[in-house]
Design goal:
Layout lengths: L1 H22 L17 E20 L2 E14 L5 E9 L18 E7 L4 E6 L16 E9 L11 E11 L16 E15 H5 L2
Antiparallel strand pairs: 1-2, 1-8, 2-3, 3-4, 4-5, 5-6, 6-7, 7-8
Length: about 210
């Protein structure tokens, strides 16, 4: 009887989360445990990204390496309409200051997503997760946690509730394996095409209040 009750409770919780997600028309992806979103968060938005991962040949340790300086992608909804732009930018959160002496910025440089209403979120790879390589020739799947959010100047708030972002279904985007091995190569840039799906999550109670 105890096992039956546990199963019933688990089923009710699963249905509840599914209904919350379906209320927004977003079904969260099936992902490895290493990038699962913590309980209490539900998917509310999905964007299919097309763009490039942009690298610069730079000194690295005792040699040289392609270093990512920004992604540059556009996210589309199911109707193929642009909804979000993805890039790197300084996080305005006072708790996330820039500590890199090589960078001139008022905040730490983070992955950023800006919606059409100009609401923006900044995120970092979650320390509770581990990147998952699904295709050896493509970017890993990631779980990112939001560390900064900002409404648009006219009150746009589409992305403000975001707590976590999953990057999944990646194709391409890896740095080149050649062309950056000598001092003469420093400064070269490589713009590598990629596609991916980004799922945006918020607290379940925030999603229910929409």
């Amino acid at each position: 009887m105890k096992d039956f009750n546990v199963c019933v409770i688990a089923a009710v919780l699963a249905i509840s989360l599914s209904q919350s997600a379906q209320a927004h028309g977003v079904r969260p992806p099936q992902v490895p445990v290493d990038i699962q979103v913590p309980a209490g968060n539900v998917a509310f938005l999905k964007g299919a990204a097309t763009g490039t991962q942009n690298y610069a040949c730079s000194p690295s340790g005792t040699g040289f390496a392609w270093i990512l300086f920004t992604p540059e992608a556009t996210l589309f909804n199911r109707a193929d309409k642009q909804i979000i732009t993805h890039f790197f930018g300084p996080n305005p959160s006072a708790a996330d200051v820039n500590t890199d002496p090589r960078v001139i910025a008022t905040g730490a440089i983070r992955a950023a997503w800006q919606a059409r209403d100009t609401s923006t979120v900044w995120a970092r790879v979650s320390p509770l997760s581990r990147p998952v390589v699904v295709r050896p020739d493509s970017l890993p799947w990631l779980l990112l946690e939001v560390v900064g959010a900002q409404e648009g100047p006219t009150g746009g708030d589409t992305l403000v509730p975001t707590t976590f972002i999953q990057r999944v279904n990646t194709v391409g985007g890896l740095a080149p394996t050649t062309g950056c091995s000598t001092a003469a190569d420093v400064g070269k840039k490589a713009f590598i095409p990629y596609t991916a799906d980004y799922f945006f999550f918020s607290k379940a109670d925030a999603a229910d209040s929409d």
